[in-house]
């Protein structure tokens, strides 16, 4: 069974939408009370976004974009690129001063080129005031020195996705809630021929999410509050040693995985446990080809949050995407009008619903979208925006945190150690040297 990126996942907007709560159905699609941007004469916009894993996300985004064009006369061309290509393309556009007018970027990328982005503070404050304020984590990614560099659009949640029957076959009545029990489960699953698999490759989302969880769950951190590099620590060493033991239970090849690979392996029935967005489960649930194997996988799939490590509390990185307007655009008012329209209640509520648990709201007013309780498997993703820890922890977000993540320093540290390319100490020291190139305090 082979799955392309396009297969992961092709749910329609209609299938994902469900029933909107009455509060989501009451607002006119074009209501923009209190703040209005008049598009420039002859304005045309080009937007670049990431390729969807949930087709309902893209379908509803395009439907909402069409509404905007019908209401304003402003044409918006929406292009898409693979997840891994978004970051370099955004950096090139910012530095060259040419390309799309708007873009959906990752994590703290806006902090790499803040002077190249159009200030949307007025719009950010308006939306926050109108819709119950922004969740703090996504807001940190989009703001700098009190100004909005962009609008935090969504958090792509990450959770454990597993086969319940195989976990029980391995002798566990429930999924372990701590890292010690989780390691024992993975050993038992491997012995039963159902290995786990977590991304050690340069997956923008899955690779970074897993590496940061490994570090933070054991009390390690890249830098301290002042931005001093502290990755070389006993806590980091314990995290690496734990990762080495866990890696022994994995399906082969995870050191080269990108964001799509664990989806494919899980849907092919090759492994029992992954850390992923809800897209893998939704692909099996929608099952557009009526494949009996996918039907079985969907019925057997459960989700839960990642286990808690020695640090004693949940500490997880989730992937945030921010909508930015490049300062070179000749149509800044049209671009702001477009983003305002997409964030207003009817469009935003419908888009979150159509995303089927994949895109978590960043504005608190949308926390009670009925979609989050329609399926028990959605629950593990419902609070991603409220609970995420930004990747710059424990220091401030900025150029250094963004560049360190873009260079996959933490991901490479674990990958080199678990594959035997370096000892834990060597891998940690190399990560320290690489991080110090960006953090100069």
Explained architecture:
The structure is a single chain. With 441 residues, this protein is α+β, with helices and mostly antiparallel strands. The protein folds into two domains: 9-157 and 318-387, Periplasmic binding protein-like II (D-Maltodextrin-Binding Protein, domain 2), CATH 3.40.190; 159-317 and 407-436, Periplasmic binding protein-like II (D-Maltodextrin-Binding Protein, domain 2), CATH 3.40.190. Helices cover 43% and strands 12% of the residues. The chain has 20 helices and eleven strands. It has helices at residues 13-17, 22-25, 55-72, 83-96, 121-130, 136-142, 164-169, 179-191, 206-217, 234-247, 261-267, 279-286, 292-300, 332-343, 345-354, 371-374, 384-387, 399-406, 409-418, 424-436; strands spanning 44-50, 75-81, 102-106, 143-144, 147-148, 151-156, 159-163, 273-276, 301-304, 319-325, 359-360. It has a six-stranded mixed β-sheet. The chain has a three-stranded antiparallel β-sheet with strand order 8-7-9. The longest helix has 18 residues, at 55-72. It is globular. 54% of the residues are buried.
